[in-house]
Give the backbone structure.
Amino acid sequence: MTLRLVVYHVSQDDPKKNTARKVARFEMAELVDRVNRIPRGALLLDPFAEQALSPADRADAERCGVVALDCSWKLAEEVFPEARSRAQPRALPYLLATNPVNYGKAFQLSTVEALAAACWILGERPQAEALMSKFGWGHTFVETNANPLNDYASSRNSAEVLRHQAEYLGPTS
């Protein structure tokens, strides 16, 4: 079973560097250009969400899909409230980006990295690996984040995902 992946895409990036466009060309994700085309009840990857994505969300993902927003952060603050009215917001836990723009930065994932992470956490590791295989640097994302992704995927719920995340983040001052 593979999950339906939807990307709300606003065409702000260089089309040659845009990861969402590339996976859409391979028919691995669907691009939508209006919020009202986001499937109702889908899981919205939202860094501002209070609840972390976890395997407990799998049934909703299978039924309605997973949505990522592909826009600037300035626009995201405007779009997220509207998108939240159609979808269930979920935050991705701590992961390191390996894309060329944000290499090594925590929580700065490209759209394809976010979708792949969601697939992995929701139990669709082959789909996650297939997404990342379309990028020369994709194997680095898988290798770099394999341990946390496996820990998150073995969690029962959001609270367990957050406990695992705390282990990776270490003590806070």
Notes: The mean pLDDT is 91. The chain is about 40% helix and 10% strand. The CA atoms of residues 118 and 158 lie 13 Å apart. The radius of gyration is 15 Å.
